[in-house]
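Margin note from the TA: students keep mixing up input and output lines. Inputs are the sequences; the output is the structure of the whole complex. Example:
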Amino acid sequence: DGGITQSPKYLFRKEGQNVTLSCEQNLNHDAMYWYRQDPGQGLRLIYYSQIVNDFQKGDIAEGYSVSREKKESFPLTVTSAQKNPTAFYLCASSTLATNYGYTFGSGTRLTVV
Amino acid sequence: DQQVKQNSPSLSVQEGRISILNCDYTNSMFDYFLWYKKYPAEGPTFLISISSIKDKNEDGRFTVFLNKSAKHLSLHIVPSQPGDSAVYFCAASGMRNDMRFGAGTRLTVKP
């Protein structure tokens, strides 16, 4: 079955540590995206990539980094520079056509302890 | 700066009645608009979309209306069912397909 997988579902991090969230898709989608959800703020775009080895900053990229070495994978690293990392992180993928919606993963809840 | 706004955080309707969820946007470069449905601790699922060249799109019980001059769109659910209870996100995208989402409206359909 084609889909998009995020792991782990729950992640705990100590302050000052970097942590990497995994996102893998087997839909053969060209584009991949990372969003962050906070209560009352909806989904905010962190980074996106439309092609391998290329990515663009979204609206809240500070404190985050990404890589796109393979079409199927788009890991997100939450660095120690991110001031408020506790949130629900969602990865999505899509074709390059704008008339199709995204396919989302089931999310990773990151908690800084 | 929020480019997509959903000003009603919650909406409660009776089963069988119409649910109307509203959304406003500020960026005139958006050319595609979508609605997503989301349950807790899950990713959103695509519900219905509309191109900026249309003013209405219908899919079963769901209809999306677009008013470009007012930069406003709405989702109508008729008739509403208890299984429709979820958070609904409005989203908009431009040529690069980098979608922006509203804050969501929690719909509760009471039996």
